[in-house]
Amino acid sequence: MKEAEFKRQNSLFSLCGLNCGLCSMKLGGYCPGCGQGNKPCKAARCSLEHDVEYCFQCNEYPCPIYDHADESDSFITHRNQMTDSLKAKQIGIEAYNLEQTEKVKLLNELLSKYNSGREKTLYCLAVNLFEVDEIKSLLKNVSEYTDSSEITLKEKALYVSNLMRQLAQKKNVELKLRKR
User: Fold this and answer.
1) Does 167 reside within a domain?
2) N-to-C CA span, the chain
3) Residues above pLDDT 70, as percent of the chain
4) How many Cβ atoms are within 10 Å of 43's Cβ, its own excluded?
5) Orientation of helix 93-114 relative to helix 153-171, angle to 10°
6) Is 23 a domain residue?
């Protein structure tokens, strides 16, 4: 297969272990996803050579392509790239995609109800790093607090952001993209 033939069916989970469905660039329509017109990366070219849909399916995984892969971020966090790949391998792609679909729904709820225009990156990052049950619990807490029509969108967004930061602190997770 040639590089030009590289296409991905799964737009939620990349072959290298990124949760693309939770990326602010994908949500904003700025990234069509792997194999949708972008030049294939090293991992994509390698997957064509080894004829695998996900890198974790390769006998050589993890290979040097993944050296330091989870030490810095791009538009999306790479923090759980390796652990998410392992999780997808253990529970299966179908189950992993169901979880990601649920996370995308929760992220869309956060963005549609509690985004004052400045929270997109924070919400994408938090949903990516937190478990589904943690996000659901946070949203339940938020909806109980924000049911009052007297609360402004900015106040709602601040409340959500504070809850996310509290949860992150409790989990010892930094809610910030890491630059190289």
Assistant:
1) yes
2) 33
3) 94
4) 21
5) 140
6) yes
